[in-house]
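The following record pairs a protein chain with its ligand, aspartic acid.
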Amino acid sequence: MRTAVMAVLMVGAVIGGGPGMMRSDAVLASPTKAPSGEHKWAVVLHGGAGVIERKSMSAETDAAYRAALKASLQAAADVLERGGTSMDAVEAAIKLMEDNPMFNAGKGAVFTADGKNELDAAVMDGATMNAGAVAGVTRTRHPISLARAVMEKSPHVMLMGEGADKFSASVELEQEEPSYFFTERRWQGLVRQLKKENLPIPPRPQGVPPAPAGGMAEIEPPDAHKYGTVGVVALDRNGDVAAGTSTGGTQAKRWGRVGDSPIIGAGTYASNQSCAVSATGTGEYFIRLTVARTICSLVQYKGMKLQDAADQVVHKDLVAIHGDGGVIAITPDGQLAWSFNTPGMYRARMSEGGKIEVGIYSDER
Ligand code: ASP
């Protein structure tokens, strides 16, 4: 495969007449890309990994998560079934999860120790190896769309903070007041964690509803060890893979902390030469091991099966450094994988012509 790519690069150089043309020619004429429609599409998604156990989940919450995972998977499947690109499928599914307060992404994101929602997201396109990422954004309704805009409409790969939100407004993405991202459940989760850690509790954010008078009984107890980050990997009928991840990061994070999700190669990665991966878990470990890229390298250079490569990194390498979490992955030849070393990971997958599989706990297939 590599020899063939080299040949195309050389032809591209000759036809294009200069190095400036080489890259796009190689992408357009890549022999790894079969004619449109030859591949069966497939998609895998996660809604976060962590201490997610049957005993602490009510039947209603369990059912609500399964329904949400299914709806997002269906959104991606609809795009792919219509012949849409893997990148469009990734964005469509993640936008739905960003709008759903059950997940730690977009509305429903966890709070920083200062009582803010700082959102991170990334996308990568396996056909072109282009990528876009944002960290610490506070006003963009769909950080995944902003990551995509960074990839498609800026010369950069990663933007952060205020500048990223400014860019977001300039490309006319939907803007929100920071209070839009507030949810009572996450706020109570923050208060609980800060109390435990003896840290000061910030004032309740401006513009949000008053604290419920009847307490929090009706709200599922928030837990710092249920992550809820979202990610999607997809394969389209052209044989192109793409990956995306969106998160509020870890609860009570401080000092502008950024996790693995927006770091290309750590929490998000895609290449048609190997695979596409989205991760979830304690980001610090995923950054140190460049988890997503390492899985793809095992596939690319060692010829490992996708599931074996994912298990190697998640169950051996991560465990060896006490890293907790999981991944979803997909290859251009249609292998699907998920792997996690936590009690649960919200997840779903489907291949063209097959059925939707949804799982939460580790004792499910
Ligand atoms: N990986 C994310 C982070 O460290 C958190 C998560 O997966 O929920 O920011």
